[in-house]
Design goal:
This protein has about 140 residues and is α/β, with parallel strands linked by helices. The chain has one domain: Nucleotidyltransferase, domain 5. A five-stranded mixed β-sheet has the order 3-2-1-4-5, sandwiched between helices. Helix 3 crosses helix 4. The longest helix is centred in the C-terminal third of the chain and has 24 residues. The protein starts with a strand and ends with a helix.
């Protein structure tokens, strides 16, 4: 089963896909947001080309477990995904995934200009890998 993971943001959407066995996450090119139609077209192409059966989306709950404004935005986007693509959408906690991705890239010696382009993809990979690890235990 191929699972697409999205790290939703207002300017960019990080994306990752799992392998055919559902064991590992690999990053996809970050989607630079332009319009709902543009974003939907890109997501539709990814879903079709990878034969996606499920979408996992990072759910940005606060450290205390409460939901904030960003959760409302992810909820609206998730509803749009379900209506548009008729696929199940799983909201998966993403707390500090972007910070963790930044730290991994810094520790790997990635220059800050490249980090900015890679951080959303890396965050999506971390979110998806966390989800995959939880379902294979």
């Amino acid at each position: 089963m191929r699972i697409l993971c999205l790290d939703y943001g207002e300017k960019r959407i990080g994306a990752a896909i799992c392998d055919e066995l559902g064991i590992t996450a690999q990053g996809l090119p970050t989607i630079i947001r332009k319009s709902k139609r543009h974003d939907g077209d890109i997501l539709g192409n990814l879903i079709k080309s990878y034969n996606v059966e499920k979408i996992v989306i990072g759910y940005p709950v606060r450290l205390d477990g409460s939901e904030g404004i960003q959760c409302e935005k992810v909820n609206r986007f998730s509803t749009l995904l379900i209506k548009t693509f008729s696929l199940p959408v799983i909201k998966w906690p993403e707390t500090l995934s972007t910070k963790e991705a930044e730290e991994i890239l810094i520790n790997s010696g990635v220059h800050w200009k490249k980090r900015k382009k890679m951080v959303d993809k890396m965050a999506a990979c971390l979110i998806l890998q966390g989800y995959l690890d939880s379902i294979t235990k």
